[in-house]
Structures are given as C-alpha cells and as structure tokens.
Amino acid sequence: MNTMEESSVNELVETTGHAGSEWLSRYSSSLMNVFGTPQRVLVRGAGCLVWDADGKEYLDLLGGIAVNALGHAHPFVTSVIASQLATLGHVSNFFTSPTQVALAEKLLELAHAPAGSKVFFSNSGTEANEAAFKLARRNSGDGPVKRTRIIALEGAFHGRTMGALALTAKEAYRAPFEPLPGGVVHIPFGDIAALEAAVDDTVAAVFLEPIQGEAGVRPLPPGYLKAAREATSNVGALLILDEVQTGIGRTGKWFASEDAGIVPDAITLAKGLGGGFPIGAMITFGEQTSSLLSAGQHGTTFGGNPVATAAALATLHALESQNVLANAAAVGEHLRSALAAIAGVTEVRGEGLLIGFDLDADVAPAVVQAGLDAGFIVNSPGPRTIRLAPPLILTTAQADTFLSAFPAILQAAKDAQ
Ligand SMILES: *Cc1c(COP(=O)(O)O)cnc(C)c1O
Questions:
Q1: pLDDT tens, position by position, 26-62
Q2: Residues with Cβ < 8 Å from 289, sequence gap 6 or more?
Q3: 78-321 carries CATH number 3.40.640.10
Q4: CATH code for 3-68+323-416?
C-alpha cells in the first residue's frame, strides 16, 4: 500500500486463513493473562450470530455481556458511526459537539429527569461509577457530622478501578489491591431492615444495582428501592443506581428502576448505551446533586467523544423506532417460562433479556463449554448459574433453537463432569 486511501482491516491483519488455535497461541504470548484463556477467536458478526476463526457459527446469547443491544454490525449504527468518524472524530473537552449535547438531552428525556438534571460522559461502566463515587465524596455535608460512609450491598459489582472496586463486594477481586478508598460498608442483600439500620447521618451515598448482574441476576425485592429512597432522603444521603448492566432497554424498559416510583440522585450507565461502541454516562437528578461536582473537579480525555455519542444516539434511535424494548420484554418472558419447564433447571430470574437460571448441579462452566460445542454463547456467573444477556433483537425463533438444544447441552455438561 503506497497511498493512505480507503482500506480495510484485512490489509493490516489477515483476519481469515489462520486457525483459532494459532491466534490463541499468539494471544498467550502477547496478551496479559487477566482474562484467562479466551473461549473462541471471533472474526465476524451479523445480528445475533457470530463466527469464529475456524468458520463455526454461534447464536450469541451473551451479547458481549449485555453490550450488543442491537446485535453485531447493525447497519444503521455502523453507518452513523462511520459518517461521524469521517466528519469529526475527536475533540477535547475544551470543546463540545452537537452529538454530545443531543445525547445528553436524549438521556435526560428518557430518564424523565427534572429541571437542573445533568449528564457526565465516561468511556466505561467503572468510570461512570468513579464519577458517582466522587459525587458521593462531595456530598460530605456542611453540618457538624461529616458524611463519609458509603453503603453498598453484598454481591455488588460496580467495576474494577480502585473506587468502583471499593464498592464491589467480592473478596477475591478486592483483597489483592487493598488498601482501597475507605468508608465503604457492604450490608446484606435485599434486607430492608439492615439498610434502614445502616443509613444514618454519616452516610454520603447508597449504591444499588436494581438487579445484581454479576451475582447471577438477582433482583432487589419489591419495595427495596422505595425504602432506600426514604432512608437516604431522611439523612441527606444520595441514592445512586448502577444501571450499567440493567439500563438502556435490557429489562424491556429504558431503566430497570423506572417502575419503582422513585427519583434517584444519580444513575450510571454503560454496557448497552453505545450498541457495542465504548461509552458510559452518569445522570445526576436535580440542580442540587448536579452541582456537587464543579468545574475542574472531574474530567476525562475521551469521555463524550463525537463518535461515541453518535454511536449512542444511533443505538437509542434504533431501539426506539424499531420497538426493540417490547421485543426484549416478550422474548425474555418466553425464554423464562420455557426455561422453568426444563428438567434440571431449578430457578429462573430476571427481567426482559437479562436472565439468570440455576441448575440442579455445579455444572455451569461445563454448560458454557457444551453450549459452545453446540453453537450457543452463554455465561456462568456462578458454579450452578447460567446468565443470558443476548441482543435485544433476539427473535422467538432464535430463542427456541436454544430452548430445544438446552436439555442435550445440560446432559453433555453432566457427562463431561
Ligand atoms: C459491567 C458492570 C460494571 C463495570 O463496567 P465496565 O465497563 O466493565 O467498567 C459496573 N457495574 C455493573 C452493574 C456492571 O454490570
């Protein structure tokens, strides 16, 4: 290539013609081993399907962990991203751009946010929660007792950077990196009395996932969010909802918390927001909360970049105009009721297309392997729990191919033990 004109990635990396095993051996020589060995080498996707380097096809029931809301290579999202990139790709936050402003306005509209509400853009879920952590630190209050404590729940997952990790409960993720930012207390999951006892005038914020995703798709019990709103309002603490996994249509609603009858102080978003393009956001509700962070107190180079915000605008537009949330609700309901009737499935949880189900034996990792062999991508957040978070455009017919294959996948997993 002696001119730098239009090209494709294939001129830089030979994406076809190499076996998966060859890429995996190059991977292990060049990539840091924090993720373990990748399950497959994926080279192409279209809708809910992906293909690996050896040409095998899979139905993607994980969607990049609740990210690919519109599946892979969605033509509308792809063309909007390409056109924005070809017009203006990046500016610093010394400047703004029309897509950034329009996306902030759209998120405030979808969240029914009152006057004075604002948006901060990040590049990931953990960064959205870092922003929320800093917001909580700024809510220390001006009374004689400073609000320095933050409440989170057992089982919580809020990310892997130091602040978000302090909010995350899992000991194996935390312990190697202590000391973490101080003041975070984890209380028992879903226990309203424990919450009311913990929230006093030393608490700056309560962080909650409406449905805990990484813990195996565990919804908070009915009434919990309302009780949390009352307890936090009484003492001036912030109620911060981590909807990084549950937001943007995942549960068949724009926000999993939207029917709880409360207005939170902040919602964090990421995963599905960019339809596969990296972007995160924190929405702060009302003038008082939104002004806790002032000019110079937080920032990011890439956050709210024109391409990322165009990708999110395109994703929201496609979700809305194609009635995708109603599809997620209907196909999710169908999957849950059919899964509950399969022998060996002991409990089914979730909402929309965020689904967790338990098995009658500790074979979930083997189910993931047997699923891949049978052409289905699923995930095991626990030893006997399977999680599905497919593209929200999954059809009933596609769901049915998995449902009819699942008994044999489960049997193969048990045989492999
Ligand atoms: C995935 C996730 C995060 C972290 O998001 P990253 O983009 O991986 O940093 C935070 N909170 C919840 C609830 C998540 O599911």
A1: 999 999 999 999 999 999 999 999 999 999 999 999 9
A2: 135, 139, 238, 265, 266
A3: yes
A4: 3.90.1150.10
